[in-house]
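Local shape tokens

___
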Amino acid sequence: MKTLFRILSFFAIIFSFPAAAALNVFACEPEWAALAQELGGDKISAYSATTALQDAHRMEAKPSLIARMRSADLVICSGSELEIGWLPLLLTQSGNDRIQPGRPGFLEASQFVMRLEMPKVMDRALGDIHPSGNPHVHLDPRNIARIADALAGRLLEIDPANADVYRSRADSFGKRWQSALQRWEQQAAPLKGMPIVVYHKDMSYFINWAGMREVGSLEPKPGIPPTPSHLADLVERMKRAPAKVVVYSPYNSPRAAEFLSQQANVPGVMVPFTVGGTEKAKDLFGLFDDTLERLLKTAK
């Protein structure tokens, strides 16, 4: 009886120890939370500060976000000034030394890829332009692969105890991503050369990857809402040289796109833009699957 009691006590002690805490990952945008989850699995807990229905340019440094960042082990954001209006304050107010710029716990995704639309001149009269180039790097699937490598390396550095898990998951994700990339490249062939009107300069990387042609923007200048005079000018331009599609993101008001679509007889399409933007875009694979599916319908 005593032996049985000792055995039961032994197992009670073992199971009373708490499981190792998951690594807290604070992502500024849903695509990076999704990527972190792919690579970290149950070894991490990923939180996104924004959703697909929110414009990451125009967030506020709310106390709830400060609290989240205070307990973060790793912060991953797009960077290139996308979050300039709120991220610096979160970092300062968090008091968390682990995730400050220059530390292993801070990762700026856009720094690991070739950025488009680097401005030659900085002038606020030109609109909301980013000195470090276009920050919406996630819509080129080749960039996701490069950033995944950087993020996997950072997870290994911060949490070496789970290195084998991170290596295994990174290898699995890399193989699945390359297979999907080959499929997407074949599917995107009909989009090559297709003229497209965007709402904002948030589709540039996808357009560049797919070989499409941007022929207009609903915004008269980056970050400036559509105006009646600009839309009227776009309608006239579409009459002379029609686009095949006008696209907008879930966080954009659809009214300007609908107006141009009706007046110029150009299909209007909402694309998911990021994970969670549509029902099918539940993860990074679904993001590109659904974006291609929606655009290919207009290419027929």
